[in-house]
Amino acid sequence: MSLEITAFFHAPSSTYSYVVADAAAKHAAVIDPVLDYDAASGRSGAASAKAMVEHIKGRGYALDWILETHAHADHLSAAQYLKQQLGGQVAIGEGIREVQATFKKLYNLDKKFPTDGSQFDHLFKDGETFRLGSITAQVVAMGGHTSDGVAYRMEDAVFVGDSLFMPDSGSARCDFPGGDAGALYDSVRKLLDLPEATRLFMCHDYAPGGREHRNQTTVEEQRRANIHVKDGVSREDFITLREARDATLPVPALLLPAIQVNIRAGRFPEPEADGAVYLKIPVDRF
User: Fold this and answer.
1) How would you classify the pairing of strands 15-22 and 27-31?
2) 272 inside domain
3) Structural domain of residue 62, as residue ranges?
């Protein structure tokens, strides 16, 4: 196998981003890149994404794809920074259209704001394949956490987005607009029907109990030990557990700034008349 996987951890959001490459052909993709953003000051930065750029340049790779697993609610995407630095197509699942329509209303965006996904270079359909050098990658729709979720399968590796966490953390919440616990159960079971040795790469790890952060597990480990969806947990039991847990969870700290950037494929809103960029925070809407 020529698939090379390098993980980058963004501690403030507990997010794992990945550079995946056909090392022999020197073609790469980035999955779920993070833009640094401080909510208190409203300042953004690209130090985390710059580390990925330096890694790609240092290995002489061409960046073909910048892949989002969904429009994240816990961090701002660095997709546009990476594209400016290295090129590549920014892609996401076609369910982004539904997410854009939902949040266009929430933010009361301009009527001209398109909800057709045209801010992205490519929208993936479920089951679609694409190339990364000599490697064939496949898109797996992963609805439930959000309506636009996808996973990316490359050789024996799957990048699962926010569908699954490490076995001691369970699964993603389903109480955002477009979320559905039953749909998430169905999505996760598609992953768990893959060969047991399949490697699953997480988008987040919150290190419960103070253990070391981990970003990789297997189908076998998840089927045996996942506290929410291991073998033997029924769809009905999962829905009951997930909905009860979701009712206790706070709104993610960066949801309101992050979504309005991420539905724009990582772009901030256009500068206003004074030359400054502003993010909108709807009051008493969430």
Assistant:
1) antiparallel
2) no
3) 3-260
